[in-house]
Design a protein that fits this description.
This protein is mainly beta and 326 residues long. The chain has 1 helix and 25 strands.
Length: 326
Amino acid sequence: MHTIDRWTLKWEHGEATVQSLGAMLGPVRFDLGGGKSVSPLYVAPWKDDARWPGMMRALRGEWPCLPFGTVNAPEGLPPGFEPRHPSDDCNHGYGSNNFWQLVDRTSHSLSLRIDYPEDGEIERVERVIKVDPDAAALDISLTVHARREIVLPFALHPTFAVPVEGVEIIGCPHQGIHSYPAPVEPGVSKVLANRTAASPSALPTETGPLDATHLPLTAATEEIVQIAGCEPPFVLRYPASGADVLLDWNTEELPDALLWISNGGRKHEPWCGKNFALGVEPANSFFDLGRVVVPPRNHPLAERSGLRFLVETPRTIRYRISARPI
């Protein structure tokens, strides 16, 4: 069994750990001065359990997904959705489920790399995580090298902790919100499928609007919605820590953000009804379904097909996670 390596950066404003599996970032602690600190990134309750394959073994924090999305289409899709066959069986892509190499380490940065399978369109992916020496912030970049020109659904996967004390979704300006086209977790999910909403404070359900801006929710559920036309930074508030956490990215590349609200709704292993997490996932993708379905042309998100990667022209995606006192 492959051992998971972990490396930690420490600086005046915090501490951040990166692991070899999936190049996942987490946990992270931001120190805000005056005795305040916040640890906003999620670590799965089972922490590191080799019984589970791929990324599920030690799910945590933030990582890149190329190609982004599930390899299993959900049941209950409405008419007009055409099935597709994914090119591999790796949920969220090869890089999410395999081990990265540490290629460089300094006092303020970690550089990692993963080589993709030789028969694929992607040759390799490089990831650099740098601390901001003057702030409670991490600057992250991802550089993709392609063997052949290809458009692939792509997303970042920052996953935030939902403590018992709660987290508030302040969010960011946006154009609209679209619910998942099928029940996320059949018999459990509350939000009505294939609908629109103006705000995460009023998601449509059979019993009226659901306010999903204050987590954890009172009822067990699993939800995915896509926030279209984001204007980051996307802000989360941790009142018990006296901190706001900000996620900033380039919306010309990644125009939307998926919200994954995991609120104890998955009862099977390894979740066991104990998983509470909030994914805020900058994306150019049709939900997490771009690998397995083609949506109807009249769907508002039908054009979210992914990022184009060119041969001999590496593409670099940059983003930032930071914190500030309230």
